Amino acid sequence: MPIFSKEEAQALLKKVLSYSKADECEVNLSASDNSNIRYARNAVSTSGKVSQKSLAVSSAFGKKLGVATINEFDDASLEKVVRRSEELARLAPENPEFVSFLGPQQYAEAKTFIPATAAITPQQRAEFVAQSINVAKAQKAVAAGFLEDNAGFSAMMNSKGLFAYGTSSNVNFSVTVRTEDGKGSGYATRGYNDVTKLDTKAATQIATDKGVKSATAKAIEPGKYTVILEPAASAVLLERILFGLDARQADEGRSFLSKPGGQTRLGEKLMDERVNIYSDPSHPELPTSTWSGDGRPQEKISWIEKGVIKNLSYSRYWAQKKGVKAVPGPDAFVMEGGSASLEDLIRSTKKGILVTRLWYIRDVDPQTLLLTGLTRDGTFYIENGKIQFPIKNFRFNESPVIMLNNVEELGKPERTVSVESNQNYLIPPMKIRDFTFTSLSDAV
Amino acid sequence: MKRRDFIQLAGLGAGAMMMPAIPSFSNPVEIERILDPIMDVTQKKQLADIALNTAKSLGATYADVRIGRYLNQFVTTREKKVQNILNTESFGVGVRVIANGTWGFGASNQVTPEGIKKATQSAIAIAKANSKFQKEPVKLAPNPSYGEVSWKTPIKKNGFEVSIKDKVDLLLNANSKAMEKGASFVNSIMFLVNEQKYFANTEGSYIDQDIHRTWPNFSVTMVDRQSGQFKNRSAFSAPVGMGYEYLDGRPEDKIQGPGGIILYNNSYDIVEDATMAAEQAKQMIAAKSVEPGKYDLVLEPSHMWLTIHESVGHPTELDRVLGYEANYAGTSFLTLDKWESKNFQFGNKVVNFVADKTQPGSLGAVGYDDEGVKCKSWDLIKDGVLVNYQAIRDQVSILKQKESHGCCYSQSWSDVQFQRMANVSLQPGKTQLTPEQMISGVDKGIYIVKDGSFSIDQQRYNFQFGGVLFFEIKNGKIAGMLKDVAYQANTQEFWNSCVAICDERDYRLNGAFNDGKGQPSQSNAVSHGSATTRFNGINVINTGRTI
What sequence ranges are listed for the domain Metalloprotease TldD/E N-terminal (chain B) (predicted)? Predict the structure, then answer.
C-alpha cells in the first residue's frame, strides 16, 4: 500500500467530506504494511505480510452518531460509505456523552517515520534472523524469536476544519535463547523507529550470555529483597501506572488514584521525589504521533513530577463536564534517571537481586494497583557489588506505586519494549529496596 | 490469556471504557449485510479449487484454502446509556501450502479468482524463501478425504436475528436492577460471534461450517466513597458455543449454591444475576480480610475453568513442549520424557482430564478443525498420569501417533492456522457428592466462586489465582465472606492435593473467547468443564495493601 503524501490525503478527505449531508462529519484515513518473521528451534517457523487501508466516516445528527468504514477509495465507494454512516447515525440511539467534533488545531511535525524501515525487504528480515540464529548456534544454544516491522500513515479531517496527517514506522525484535539442556534461558528485546539501529546479532549475544550464565540456578528463600530492575523488567510495571491515569475513573472512585472521602490523588505526592515521568511526542529517542485519534494535539506533558501526580488524562466529554483541559492519554512515556550504568548499580549493591525480565503481569487489586507476575530469563544474586550466581525464578506481588516509594538509585534511561503491550518506552535501570517476592518457581 | 482483550471485553474490571475495538480487517456493517449469506457453497468451491490448482501448478506438495467470513456483534451499555452498537464483518481467503518441504501462507481480502491466485503465489514464494532455513521437511499425519461435508453449531436461536432493541432492553433492565440495589456503576455487554468457514485441501476435502458463540457479561461496581474502597462483581455467565437461547434463563438451569448464591448451567438469567451482583458487591467491601496460611480450597466450576486452562490446558500443548512458543508464551514442564515414562503422576488418582472438540455448548466444538481434521475427544491425564498431549498434523508423528488430534485453529482468514487448545475438562467424580456435602467435610477452608486475577510462569509450574466471591469454611459450614484472597501453588503439587470432585450433576462449563497465543498473537475460544473440586492444604496469601 503506497503511503499517501499530505496533499494526496488532504485531497481524498476533502472529497469524502463534500458528500456529507450530516450536521457534522469526521473522516479518518489510514494505511499500513505490517510484516513479520518468526523462528524457533534455530529455524524459521512462519512469516507473513499484511497490508491494510481503511477509511472511517463518522456522521452526526445532533447527539446521534454513526460510523462506517471502507477499504476502496473510488468515488462511488466513498459516497456510499458517507451515506451508510448517515443511515447508521439516524438509526442510532442518542448518545448523551457525544461531544461535537474539534475545530482546527496546530500540531508539531512528527519524527516517527524513517524511510529505511518502510523499505525492509523479505531478504533483510531473513538476514536479521540468520544473524540471530548463528549467534545461538555458535554457543550450542537454541534461539526462538520474532521480528515485526510496520510503516504507514494516518490522516483525519472534519467538517469543522480540522486536518491532521502523520507517517510512522517501527520495528520490534525479541529473542529467547535457551541452553540445549533447557537449564538456562536469556532474553533480549529491541524497538526502534529506525531499522538501521537494529543489531539482532548483538541483542542475541546478550540473550545467549544470559541464557548460558543463568543455567544451574540456585534456589533462595522468597521474601523482601533489594532488586535491580533492567528497563525491560520495570517497563511492564510502570506502564500500568500510565494506563491508569484516566480522570473519570479516579473521579468515580474506582482507581488507585481515588482516595477516601471522594477526592482524587491529583496533586498528591505518591512516590519518591526522584520519580519524574513525562510524555513528549518530539523526544528524539522516542518520537510518537503529535495528535491523538480524535484530533487532539499530543504535547509534552508531565504526569509525575518529583513524585507528585501532576496530570490526569481526560476524554473530551469528561473534561467538558469537569471544566478542564481535555488532555489525551500518552502514546509512550519517559522516566528520568541519572547517569549510572547497570554495572554501576550492581557495583554499589551490598546484597540484592538482578531482575532482567518480568512476565505474565496481572492485576491482583486495582485499588492499590497490586500486580503479580514472575521473573524470567535470567535472575541473579548480587553480593558485595558483584553477580555471585544465578537464582531460580520468583513470583512477586508488588504495586508499582509502592515500589516507586522505595527507590534507591536510578540509572541512565534507555529505550525498551514492553513484552505485555508491545509499547516502546525510555526507562532507567533502577535499584529498589523491599521488593516483595512471595514464592519460588521451577520454571526456566 | 491476553490481558488487554480480557480487560476490554471480559473483566470490565476498570469499568470506564468498554468500547470494543473493531477487529483488524473488519468493517462495521449494517445488520442486513450480516444476515445476507453473500456467497453460496458452489461459488466457494470454485474459488477454493483455483487456489488448490494454482498451488499444485507452482510445485506445492500440499495446499489448503480457507474462505472465511467472521461476523461479530457488540452491544455495550453503562447504567442507563447505550454506549455502542457495532456489527463487524471480515471476509477473505487464506492459503497455506507446503513447497520445498516448508510451510508458506498468503492471504487476501479480495475473494476473487485474481485475489486467490495472488495469495497462493505469495504463499509459495514465502515457502520457497524460508525453505533455506528448514532443517527437516514438514511431515503431515494422514487424514482421510471427507468429500463435500458441512457442520453447524446446533443453535436454537440465531443471536444476530434477535433485534438490537431486545438486546438493549435486556442489558438496560439488568443495569437498572443492579442500580436499584445500590450499585455505583454497571457496565454490560452482549457479544455475538458467527464464523462462516469454508475449507478445502488438495486431499479432496471440502468442508462448510457455520459456528456460533454467545457471551453476555457485566461488571457491577460498588464504591464506598467514605473509605475509598471499591469492588467489582463480574457476571456469573459463561461464554458459550450456543445461540441466543442461552439468555432464556430457564428455571431448570438455575442452581442454588452454597452461601446463598445462584449459579447457572445451560442458560443464564442476566437480570437476576445483576440484582444478586449488587448485593454481593456490598458484602465484598464489608468482608473480613483473609488470614494468610494453609487452607483446604473448594473451587466452584466458574472459578475452576481458568485454573484448568492455565495449569493443564497450556502445558499439554505439544508445540509448547517442543519449544515453538519459547519466545512468547513459553515452554512446558510436561517434557516428552515424562510422557514416555508412562508413570508421571501429574495429579492424584481421582484426576482425569479429557481434551475435546465436540462437546455440545462448548466454545471449542466444531465438526472439523482448520486443517480439515474431523474432531474428537481424547485423554490427556488418566488416573492422575500424563498419557497424551494436544497435537496437530505436522507434529503428532513426534508422539508416534498416526492421526492428528484435530485442534488446529486460526482466528481469521488472514492468520495462519496452528495448534490451539481444545476444551480441556476435569471429569466429574464417580461417587455421589454435592458441593454442600463436600463443604461439610472441611474444617478450615475457603469456597471460591468465579475467576479473578491469574498469573502463571512460562513453564506452568507456579501459579497464583484470585477469584470473585470467597466464603470462609469453618468446621464444615460457610462462615461469611472473605476478601484479599489469592492462592499460590506448584501445578503438580496442586493437582496431587486434589482429594475429591463432585459428581456429574454439578458438572458445568465456563471459558474464554480470547485465549492468546503465537506471534503475532491470535485469539482462540475455549471451554473448560468441571464439577466443584476440593484441594487440601493450599497456600493462601493476603493481597490487601495500602498506598
Answer: 63-127
Domain A6-211: give its CATH architecture: 2-Layer Sandwich (3.30)
C-alpha cell at B499: 482429594
C-alpha to C-alpha distance for A185 and A392, rounded to whole angstroms: 11
Average pLDDT for chain B? 93
Among the ranges given (A18-27, A35-44, A87-96), the one the predictor scored with the smallest mean pLDDT: A87-96
Nearest-by-CA chain B residue for A31: B25
Chain A nearest-CA residue for B544: A365
For residue A339, pLDDT over 80 is answered with yes
User: Is A73 exposed, middle or buried, given 0-12, 13-18 or 19+ CB atoms closer than 10 A?
Assistant: middle
Helix, strand or coil, per DSSP, at residue A59: strand
> Which residues on adjacent β-strands are paired with residue B456?
B463
Cβ pair B130, A47 in contact under 8 A: yes
- Is A121's Cβ below 8 Å from some Cβ in B? no
Q: Which residues in chain B touch residue A50, judged by CB atoms under 8 angstroms apart?
A: 25, 107, 414
From A42-51, A56-65, A285-294, the region with the lowest mean pLDDT: A42-51
d(CA B463, CA B454): 8
Least reliable range by pLDDT among A85-89, A377-381, B246-250, B302-306:
A85-89
Q: How many CB atoms sit inside 10 A of residue B147's CB?
A: 9
For CATH 3.30.2290.10, the residue range(s) in chain A are 6-211
Q: Which tens digit of pLDDT belongs to each residue from A297-334?
A: 999 999 999 999 999 999 999 999 999 999 999 999 99
| A-chain residue closest to B454, CA distance | A362
To the nearest whole angstrom, how far is the Cα of A63 from the nearest Cα of chain B? 12
CA–CA distance, A167 with A154 (Å, rounded to integer): 6
- The domains of chain B, with CATH numbers, are 3-285 (3.30.2290.10), 289-542 (no CATH)
Cβ-Cβ contacts under 8 Å, B28 against chain A: 67-69, 88
* Percentage above 90 pLDDT, chain B: 88
The answer to whether B8 and A421 have CB atoms below 8 angstroms apart is no
* A213, pLDDT greater than 90: yes
Interval A144-160: pLDDT, tens = 999 999 999 999 999 99
Strands B102-108 and B81-99: antiparallel
Q: Give B8 or A7, the one with higher predicted confidence.
A: A7
Given a contact cutoff of 8 angstroms between Cβ atoms, the answer to whether B332 and B313 are in contact is no
- Cβ–Cβ below 8 Å for A95 and B83: yes
**A216 shares contact with chain B (CB less than 8 Å):** no
| Alpha helices, DSSP H, located in B150-199 | 164-180
In angstroms, the CA B230 to CA A174 distance is 38
Look up cell 454490560; give the residue: B188
Helix-, strand-, coil-residue percentages of chain A, each rounded to 5: 25, 40, 40
Mean pLDDT of chain A: 96
- Confidence label for A123 from pLDDT (cuts 50, 70 and 90): confident
Residue B113, C-alpha cell as written in the block: 479468482
Q: Residue B153's closest CA among B362, B421, B413, B372?
A: B362
Is the link from the previous residue into B520 a cis peptide, with omega within 30 of 0? yes
Q: Look at strands A407-410 and A430-441 and give their pairing.
A: antiparallel
Q: Which residues contact B222 (CB under 8 A, 6 or more apart)?
A: B182, B183, B184, B230, B231, B233, B278, B281, B282, B284, B285
**The predicted structure's pLDDT at residue B25:** 60
Cell (9 digits) for A337 = 534517571
In this predicted structure, the answer to whether residue A368 has a pLDDT above a threshold of 80 is: yes
3-state helix, strand, coil in chain B (%, to 5): 25, 35, 35
Give the pLDDT band (50/70/90) at residue B181.
Answer: very high
